[in-house]
Every structure is written in C-alpha cells, then in structure tokens.
Amino acid sequence: MDGSRSRKRGNHQYYRILAGLFALLFLVFFVLNLVLPDRTLSVREKRMLTAFPVPQADRVLEGNYSNDFEDYASDQIPFREFFTDLKVYADSLVGRNESQGVYRGSDGYLLEKMETPDETVVSRTVDAMRAFAELFPLPQQLVLIPNAVSVLKDKLPLWAPTADQEAFSAQIAEMLDGSGIGFKDLQNTLQIAGLDGVPLYYRTDHHWTTDAALACAPAVLETLGRTFTAKGELLPVTSQFSGSLSAKSGLAVRERDTISVWQPEDEPVILVTDSAGKRASLYSWDGLESADPYTVFLGGNEGLVRIETDRIGGGRLLVFKDSYFNCFLPFLLSEYETVDVVDPRYYSDDLLMLMRQNEYDQILYFYNINTFSADTSLALVLGEAIEQAGRK
Amino acid sequence: MNRRSFRSLLPYLLTAVLLAGLAAGFLLSRRPAEDTDVSDPAGRVYVSEAGERSAAEAQSQIRAARKSTSAGTTAEPSGTAEPAPTEPAPTETLPTAPTETAPPETVPPETEPAGPTAEPHTDAPTEPPAETTAEPPVETTAEPEPPTEPAPTTAPGPSPETVLASLQEQIQTLNIDLFTPDELAAVRRRFDTAVFTGDSMAQGFVSFDLFDENHVKFQRGASIGEFDPEIQAAIDTLPDYFIFFTGCNNVSTYINDPTEYYRQFVSRIEWVKSTLPDTEIYVICMLPASDRFIKYENYHVARQPEYDAQLKLVCQDTGVHYVDCHWMVRQELYLEDGLHFNEAFYTVLIKFLMLEIGL
Fold first, then answer.
1. A122 shares a domain with A36
2. ipTM > 0.95 for the complex
C-alpha cells in the first residue's frame, strides 16, 4: 500500500519531467527557428531549400499556405543535417535498407533498383532502332551496360526484389535479331573485371567508374571492328565525390568516392564542339567543383557534342548514348577521326539533316540497362527522323 | 540504497542507458568519411597540362592533319591548298571562282547536276545516305576545303557564270527553286566552317531552317554597335568565313550620323580581324526596305543608300569583301512586314554567297 503510493509518486515525477522536457523542446526549437538565419542551399541534398513563404491572400484562402509553411519549417529546422542523419540511423536500426528505390548494400555500396521494364516502351525503342537501321544501313551496334544491381548482385540486401537485367538483355538481343544491329552486353566483361579487383561502380552514384569503362574498352572496340591499342593510366581527380544515389536516398551521405580520368600516353589532338562553343579538352574542371562532379566528363549531358581528332582516316562515328558514355568516350578517340555524340534526352535538332550532312561510317548505341529499359527519348528522336524521311 | 528508492530511480536509469546506447550507435554511424585524399590538384594539373592546348590550336592542328592527308590521297598538286585565307579582296568579281566551285552540289539550281548520282532518284527512304556519300571525296566531308576539285577540266557542273545567270533569271522570273533536303544538307556541309552574325536579317537563315543557331549568331533589332556578345559568340566558333548581315536598324540608330555608323562598323571588323587573322570576312550589303514600308511605316529608311555607301567604304578601308546583292531585291520577295525577305530570297542569297566565297 505504502510502497505502491510512493512508486506512483515517483512515476508521476518521471512523467512530469518527461512532459516538461517535451514542452521545452518545442519552445527551444521555436526560439531557435526565429533566431537562426535561414539557409538557402543544401550542399548535401544538392537542392535549394524552401524560403520563407510570404503570406498571400489567395494562397491562404486556397489552404495552400499552411503547406508552404510546413515545407519551409521542415527545410529550415535547426540542425537539419543532424536530424536527417538521425532518421537514417533510426531506419537502419529497424532494418530499413531501401529508400527511394535505392538499396543500401554491403561494403558501403548504394545500388539502384531496376524496375520491371515496360514492354511497350522497350519495344517502341527497339522498333525505332530497327526502322532507323533500314533507313541508314550502316554498320551499327547496341552496347548495353548492366548496372550495379546486376553486376554487384552479391552486395544487395538478401532477397531484395529487383528485375533481372540479364534476362532483359537476352530479350533485347532476341528482339534485335535479324535487324543488322549488332548487340553487346557487358555483364560478363564487367564481372571478370570485378574478380580482378577493379572497382566497377561508385558507391554513392549510379554511374560506372572510369576503371570499369577502361576494362570494357577492348570488348566495345572489338564489337566496333577496331582494336583498343591505346596505353595510358587512370588519374584520380577527386576523392570527395558524393553521388546522386546518396543525394536521392539520404543514405551513405558521408561516403565519398574517387573519380578518375583516363590519360593516354599518345594523346590525340581533340577539338570538342557543343552548344557552349569549342574547346580542346573533354573535361570540365569546373564541373568537378559543382554539385554534380560527374559532369567533369564532357561537362554533363548535351544534345549534340562533336569531337574531332587528328586521327585522320579513322572514320566517323555517330553515338546515341546516356551519361554512362561520358566517361567511356576517351577510349574511342584514338581510333576515330570524328565522333558525334547525341544524347536523345536533350537533342532537339533535325537528326535526318545531321545524318545527311555527315557521312557516318558507323552508329553506336551506348546505354546502361536502367536507362535503356525506361527511355522514351531515343524512340522519339529516331521516329521523328524516320517520319520525316518518309514524308519526303 | 534501499529497494524502494532504487525502484523509483529505475525508469531514469533505463532511459539513460537506452539513450546512451542509441547515441553511441548514432555517433558511430556518423563517423567522418575516411579521407583518402588523392591530391586532386596534382592530378588535375597533370591532365590539364596535357590538354592545355587552346581550341584554336587544336582546330588548326586537326585541319593541318586533314589537309596533308587529303592532299596526299587525292594526289592534288595542292598549290590551291589554302587559297581562301590568304587571298585579299578581289574575290568579289569572282575571278577565283572557276577553280573552286566545281563540285556538283555547289550549283543546285539545275536540280541534281551530279551525273553519277542522278539515276536512283525515285524511291525516297533508303536514298539519302547513298546520295550524300556520293558527293565529295570520302573523308574531307565537313570541311569546305578547296582542294576537292580536279574538276575545272571535266565539266560536270556549270561554270559560275552560268550559275549566276541562272540565279539572275530566277530572280527575274520569280521562279525560284528552293533547296531540296539533300541540297540543303550539302549546302550546310559547305558552310560548316562559316558563321553569320547580324540582326534580324541574319536571323532569316535560322527562321527558314537554312542554318542552325550554331552558325548564325543574331540579335534582333540591333544595330552594329549593339550585338557584341553575338559577335563574340561567332568568333568563338573559330570560323573560316565570317559573314556580317545587317539591315536598316542601323539607319534608325545612327540617323543623321552615317559616319558614326562607319566608325562603329570598322571597329567591329578590326576586332574580328585581330582575333581571327586567318578568317575571311564578308559583309553583305545593306538591303533597302520595301517601297511600301518606306511610304507607310518609316520614311527614315529611305536613307538606306547613304548607309550602304558607308558600308561599302567600310569594306574598302578594312580590306574585307563586300557582297553586293541589290540585284536580288524584288518587291515580291519581301515578307508581309515589308522589311524582311522570304525563303526564296535567302535561297538565292546562299547560292550567290557560295559563288562569291567559292565554297
């Protein structure tokens, strides 16, 4: 009787303190919010933070103002980075290892999940490629690079659900059968390189490394009917790369990757022309300092980039590609006189005119499987040219 | 410590242990990334030293390499290898043209003059590649290189005089052949190392999809002193041929002061000349507005001949080419605004420029 009363009293005290602390938290954060200056940019998340929403009659009346204010409050909360870390930690404590389609794998790897491809999207792309090959019967190849989720399967969390990239690429090979378009899947090449200890993918980013690109260069050039003879070395240019997967998922925000670039011994003279003008280097050193250091390669994605070299008589290559190609490009330049690089996602010019203006010797499609399986822009760009040719 | 007080302390202890455990785990999870510093600057300096070449140097090295191989392969005497950059003004009267304009597609008016490629012309789809590959010797391609022709003796293409006559006749009869897609592709290839800059007159090339914006740097409504950023952008393309095309905006801007117009234009040309010493500069004459426009819209523009005379002086004094195309002006070739010209006009203009420049 006596004891239970005293225990009750003790507990009352405990709860009181708890409630008091809780109330105090509100007060402290309210005051801090008022006192601390607003920040505009989150370097870690690679985005602008919401600014204070000035109340406007219509926003308030529509009931949107409270949403705006909530965004503002959550973006500007004091110690924001601390709290996001805390959340990620709490998630990991309860066993959550996936966020925004990104898995936290072993050895610090983040792996982007492959969504089950939409059959109609894929067949639209392949059909467009086939029709384009009929229109321009040049030697042409499709090179598909599997993603970390496929090559580094062993690093995935146990039983993590993801689509099968090997099956996908077998399916593409089948669909291209008889089209005159050659097909090369780099899964085996990459796996063998991985056994040799080559770091194939960035831990925090969805791209493959320059090391992996180098390991695949002989195989890709062979499918193009060339041999990869260039010698050189890989030079690390930054060790502070925090990639898009980490930004997207909030996982492994403290991991850093190393970006290397290829420095050939017998370097060809090159001239790069894109919408920004002409320059003599493939690399954008400013890109290294930017929010996305991967843009060091080619300065990011452009609709059309032309690279001319002094390898006269090397032939003219047209490439349709995604960003995986950006770090691969240097390995082609010892072999070609001109390489025109089209990124269909950003290309809005007249492809038919481009084909007519330039006598390409070869066409290369160069995609990572994740992008290729979901891409609609290639079919659009090719389709436009095909339609235009038909109209004439 | 007795049992009771221990009991009352228990919640605090448990909370403290739990919090301490979580905090420790959290702090461990936040350990700073190990800093495997790769000495960025060192790596970067090394790479950029190798690539420290300027774009202009790279371009001239590549062109030199191309020239030497193409001279070798086509067994050209190569005396004509570099006529364009060195030769001064006289091209205007096109005496140099005969040696240079021979390849068939320079003269599109006679639809498809190229003998060998003419036959399979009916089915559309698979055609274009075959045809385009047939044109110049295999790999000189994008370069408007003169040494592509041992042609003056063999006669697949009409002479410049006949081309000019045909253009004049098209203007007379207003029966003007627009470019077919293949012709346009060939034309664009010829003009690949040319750049246009100017006001809305230059914009016409883009509006009619004749050239893309990489080859036409324009600022609508600008007079010569007002589009320096576009001139800079044009310079940055490192062109072989730099072509000014401006219109009557200048009359309004420098109204009553044609000499200021002269001074401004000279300074822009000197600028281009000094930054691109090997580039040929062409200035297209200032064309008049339509009669209707002068009568109803802006009578100042009637003073255009004064300004065009100044422009001619500019060209004389700076030693660049003045392209006189007043003979192309027909009232029927103006657009509705009475100030700009239609696609047919631009088509003839391009063909005429190819004669003048010798592309």
1. no
2. no
